[in-house]
Amino acid sequence: MGALDSQIALSCDLTTVQGQRMAIDALNDASHWFLILMREAEKVSATTDLSISCPQMLREILSAQIADLQCNFPGSTYNSFSAAPPVAMLYQKALFLSTFGPLAENLAKSSIPRYLLSKLKSKTSHFKFPCIDITQNFLRGYCEAESLLREGCLPPCLDLLSEAGPVMIMDGNLAANL
């Protein structure tokens, strides 16, 4: 739900007041869902990529994006020196954590961290586009990396229906397990 709300925020027209309001509401909703995920992650033991640090980082990024949108909102009482760190810094922190931090241990065989790192090195150190474009570029890069993984790096999955049940999946359809 958090990812869906983030996509809704990306699709909003930020040139209108209504679009900015919808984007802020969608980002607030996404932040709420990631808060729920963070609280649930505290209750269980999970792999590092599903631990509390991932939704916490996503909430930090969303909070910075909300602060940035509110700062640029017409008639806003927010100033540009808000308490939230710049969105670009948080994306760099997320990239660092996924490449060199605890996530790197689980994602070492994945091409996503290496792909993102090569993209970051090919860019200049100063961002020349607004923060909303950073989100779009990040998502575009993630989707490109995901498509690379889909092409040849799919892990084998266990078909529990075929192993233990009276039915199995054959050519994407349920069939009797004889």
Description:
The chain has 178 residues and is mainly alpha-helical. The chain has one domain. 63% of the residues lie in helices and 4% in strands. The protein contains eight helices and two strands, in the order H-H-H-H-H-H-H-H-E-E. A hairpin with a 2-residue loop joins strand 1 and strand 2. Helix 1 packs antiparallel against helix 2, helix 2 packs antiparallel against helix 3 and helix 6 packs across helix 7.
What's the number of extended β-strand segments?
Answer: 2
Largest beta-sheet characterization: 2 strands, antiparallel
The order of strands across the largest sheet is 1-2
- Rounded Rg: 20 Å
End-to-end Cα distance? 39 Å
> What is the beta-strand fraction?
under 5%
- What's the overall average pLDDT, rounded? 67
Number of folding domains?
1
**Helix percentage:** 55-70%
Shape: extended
What structural category characterises the helix and strand content? mainly alpha
Tally the helices. 8
SSE order, as H and E?
HHHHHHHHEE
**Poorly predicted runs:** 107-111, 123-131, 152-161
List keywords for this structure.
single chain, 178 residues, mainly alpha, two-stranded antiparallel ribbon, 8 helices, 2 strands, extended
